[in-house]
Amino acid sequence: MSAQHSISQRYGPVAPGDRLRSEDEPAAGVLGYLIGFCLSVLLTAASFGVVGTHLIWAPGIPVALAVLAVAQMGVHLVFFLHINSGPDHTNNILALAFGALSITSSISGSLWIMYHLNHNMMAPKMMTDLHMQH
Amino acid sequence: MSAIAPNLPGTFDPHRLGHRGAGPEAADYGPAPKRVIVAYGFWIFLLSDFVMFSGFFAAYAVLGRSTAGGPGARELFDLHNVAIETICLLVSSFSCGMASIAVDARKMALAQFWLLLTAALGVAFLGLEIHEFVGLAAQGDGPQRSAFLSAFFTLVGCHGLHVAVGLLWLGMTMVQFSARGFAPNLLRRFKCWSLFWHALDIIWVAVFTVVYLIPGNP
């Protein structure tokens, strides 16, 4: 049970979360995590810094926050979960893409439907208001 | 003598399409090893967990302004608390990565040290979250106050529950590692746990953006 064993063990198909083969050396692995950690700290600091700032046009702040969050999720996926676009990760990427599709459709679909539902529910109140005017 | 000559000019496929990637492993056929199957299955579970969370996020997004005359996000949430929680989870994700490197190098003491640090940061995160929840409930802003607060407690509480389960799992992993060493089944479990822990951090990024920062923006 030496370090050699663990490296040769990973010369098979790649599992989700396996580091790149170029990162088999512990030093390279640590460097990868350090880069990911620094990037995510920067993005987090940017997110908290953007709130209440006057550097950005106020209505644009939620958009900036959403972009920073998506970027940080990407950093976590690449540097911590080691998902990449290599041929060994096709299955993982396909599953992730389907998950992203489900998540996007359930969130945007809910918001879309509920917005229109709220809009339509206005009608009876407006009509009673009209009746009250007579 | 063989019926098929794979290296006949014109028939050899250098990219081995349909036979996994090129590289040192390209020669082995047959089913993937158990380690890969377990991790892939757990990856599918994590994605389904994300889909479940997306339902709670959708509920929060729809109900965010349904405060029933009660306080909204801007009055209730303390962004300093959220920032400290975020730092705890980020550093714990990093130390989880360090632990996985130590486990791959089969260094028990180092692995236990990083795992202990990860656990301590997870406990700190959970403590801060419970403190926040108890404070809100004590001032009458519990989940029954408004639809907005119901959605908030469900979403953030569900993430907190995941962290608590992850901590229990981590404690079990540490005990089993010290009792039985780096056995193959423990290594598979540890791999799943580290995927779980990193995935919780990804969900927390969405939580602090959607729940705290966007509505808390003055």
Could you explain the architecture of this structure?
The complex is a heterodimer of chains A (134) and B (218). Chain A has 134 residues and is mainly alpha-helical. In chain A, 72% of the residues lie in helices and 0% in strands. Chain A has helices at 3-9, 26-50, 61-80, 90-133. The longest helix of chain A is centred in the C-terminal third of the chain and has 44 residues, at 90-133. Chain A is flat, with a radius of gyration of 24 Å. With 218 residues, chain B is mainly α. Helices cover 72% and strands 0% of the residues of chain B. Chain B contains 6 helices and no strands. In chain B, helix 3 runs antiparallel to helix 4 (108-138). Mean pLDDT of chain B is 88; it is low at 1-5. Classes of the chains: A mainly alpha (134), B mainly alpha (218). At the A-B interface, helix 1, helix 2, helix 3 and helix 4 of A face helix 1, helix 3 and helix 6 of B.
In short:
The complex is a heterodimer of chains A (134) and B (218). Chain A has 4 helices and no strands.
Mean pLDDT of chain B: 88
Write down the overall geometry of chain B.
elongated
Question: So what's the oligomer here?
Answer: heterodimer
Order of helices and strands of chain A: HHHH
The count of helical stretches of chain A stands at: 4
Rounded to the nearest angstrom, the radius of gyration of chain A is 24 Å
Number of DSSP helices of chain B? 6
Structural class of chain B: mainly alpha
How large a portion of the residues of chain A is in β-strands, by DSSP E?
under 5%
**Low-confidence runs of chain B (pLDDT<50, min 5 residues)?**
1-5
Which geometry of chain A do the CA atoms define? flat
Biggest interface, and residues per chain?
A-B, 59 and 62 residues
Distance between the termini of chain A: 89 Å
Q: Secondary-structure element sequence of chain B?
A: HHHHHH
The largest sheet of chain A is: none
Q: Runs of chain A with pLDDT <50, length 5+?
A: 1-10
What is the first-to-last residue Cα distance of chain B?
A: 79 Å
Q: How many β-strand runs of chain B?
A: 0
Please, what is the average pLDDT of chain A? 81
Query: If you compute it from the alpha carbons, what radius of gyration of chain B comes out, rounded to the nearest whole angstrom?
Result: 23 Å
